[in-house]
Amino acid sequence: MSDRLLAVLSEDLRPLAAQRLAAAEPVLRRLLAGLYGERADFDAWLGELMESLGVLYAARPAELRALDLERLACPGWFLSQRMLGYCAYVQNFGGDLNGVAERVPYLRELGVSYLHLLPFLRARGGENDGGFAVSSFDEVEPALGSNADLMALTANLRLAGISLCSDFILNHVADDHAWARAAKAGDADARAMFHVFPDRAMPDRYERTLGQVFPQVAPGNFSFIEELDGWAWTTFYPYQWDLNYANPAVFAAMAAALLRLANRGVEVFRLDSTAFLWKREGTNSMNQPEAHQLLQALRAIVDIVAPGVLLKAEAIVPTRELPAYLGSAEAPECHIAYHSSLMAAGWVALAEQGTGVLREVVRNTPALPAAATWLSYVRCHDDIGWNVLRAEASADGSDSAVRLARAARFFSGAEGSYAIGAAFQSTDPNAAHGSNGMAASLTGLQAARTDEEGALALRRMLLLHGLALSFGALPVLYMGDELAMENDYSYQDRPQHAMDSRWLQRPVFDLQRWKHRYDVSTVPGTMHQALAKLVRLRGRHDALAANAPRTLLADAPDGMLALARGERFLTLMNFSGRPQGYALQGVWRDCVAEQEKVGTLVLEPYAMYWLVRE
Ligand code: GLC
Question: Which of these, 378, 399, 545, 398, lies nearest to 473 by C-alpha position?
């Protein structure tokens, strides 16, 4: 079957392709045979797949092929402590793709080397879940630019040393994607790309064990589609139809779509909702073994055709389910995985003024496999989902539902909290709802009435960012947080967004704040300068690389998290509103304030120290 791939390549491309095939093809074949091998037409299908990969291999532009070689020579390039991510909506950050290109100097100045632009491909008109309902994987959303603009932007970013990360929404497509339109028109092959049931019999059986993502605005996991005269599987909104990966045509088409984007210069793919790719009756249809096999097969394909490309798993799942998304030495999967438990646990630590749950998450986070990393973050475009922390929140015998619900209430502003946020939806009445809001609003900046309150809120902002920067991960800043931007309530006036409070944290980039970024007499300037300083310091310490060793120090008081990175670096973080002491062994240097520290160090409320052993 490898012959089919090689056959379409020119003479000069063949030797290298043959080499990569020899390494990855046996794994790929085994995985695909496991998923689809029982079909009579398996060999023919596989042959066609390989030929289509050959065509995409041949089409890969020379400069991207050169980048592939560079990355292969240094497979752990993205684990460096100098890697920093930034995540933004195109329309909010720059208006369109060309406008984003104009912000490249700003990103460089901040030390960004990885830019995740939220969905920018052609999306469904009207409601489209912030672009997560894709109508075409081959066209840029016209309001945001063209494919030529995309290629120009990726080239521009590459020159600046920034990798572009694009969402690749592989679990579902919009109900006006060509496949959905054909299915509605009665095309049987197109209908087979989806999970469609003639009546409620199967949906009802599945529903017994499925969860719900948007229980209030999009209850249930199936939607009756009149034109299909049947029920389509729709995990998210009714206009997002889940793809049926039991059909090999889906896998082949999606793998090709990903590679076409890679050939336009996308270097990292955020694989959206990866946990949901495979359905199994009697389960919650998340994290199924086949979902991992699909991702591993995709990885093998990337390793053959575009080995410089990185895959990132968006799997918002409990800590114990997370390592599988990075795969193993024998079958690597994604290069990067969101550590949503770490993110949520940082917020719980603030709400509880205690680090019990956070420590448990650190303990449950295994060492990284080679050339892979967690993604750390403070906020993103989605809600903070608390329920990933159930195991950690009950580890000390607590009732996790009660405990997480308390944290959730805290960030929606109850319980005497400084936070101004909104409750999102919850799966069942006993579970904690998610929380929405910009970091600055959730940490108390928006509510601050006095300088002192403002100063404490800023410390909380820096504390959470300090955790993301020093944990040992690829940290990704969320647009606006570096300028302490607050909640945006304008979504309430937009009918297509009003029911989804995640829009609270999707503001337009604030140029006024941006202009004040060097002015430390302002809140945005103070935040920006303090964060930029941490980013610069981080870059200087190998001990903060993603894969450098990390030890949780048990001798810190409950309000504090103490992490050693290697023998010479120590971060101390006070998550409580009371001073906390820590007895240092030996002589240390506070690398933020450039001061020597010995003996017992007292951390003021929400203070953080980055210490290097002298
Ligand atoms: C992911 C996205 C989220 C979206 C969902 C459905 O979880 O982050 O914003 O609603 O997938 O595509």
Answer: 545
In angstroms, what is the span from residue 144 Cα to ligand 1's centroid? 20
Among 242, 262, 286, which residue terminates a domain?
Answer: 242
**Active-site hit among 25, 96, 267, 272:** 272
Q: 466-479: per-residue pLDDT in tens? A: 999 999 999 999 99
Q: Identify the residue whose C-alpha is closest to ligand 1 atom 8.
A: 382
Q: What's the first-to-final CA gap in the chain, in angstroms?
A: 59
Residues 559, 540 share a domain: no
pLDDT of residue 532: 98
Tokens encoding 33: 């045979």
Q: Is 225 helix (H, G, I), strand (E, B) or coil?
A: strand
pLDDT at 39: 96
Query: How much is the pLDDT for 414?
Result: 84
568 shares its domain with 539: no
Q: Strand order in 222-225's β-sheet?
A: 196-197, 230-233, 222-225
pLDDT under 70 in the chain at which residues? 1, 426-430
Q: How many CB atoms lie within 10 A of CB 223?
A: 19
Q: Using CA positions, which residue lies closest to atom 10 of ligand 1?
A: 129
Number of separate domains in the chain: 3
Catalytic residue (choose from 141, 167, 303, 314): 314
Can you tell me the distance from the alpha carbon of 164 to that of 85, in angstroms, rounded to the nearest whole number? Answer: 10
DSSP 204: H
Q: Is residue 415 part of a domain?
A: yes
Q: Are residues 326 and 194 in the same domain?
A: no
The CATH number that applies at residue 523 is 3.20.20.80
d(CA 200, CA 206): 10
Task: Specify the pLDDT at position 139.
Answer: 98
Residue 476 to residue 481: CA distance in whole angstroms: 11
Question: Of 495, 527, 544, which closes a domain?
Answer: 544
Please tell me what DSSP assigns to residue 60: S
DSSP code, position 265: T
Residues spanned by the domain of 366: 78-173+245-544
pLDDT of residue 355: 98
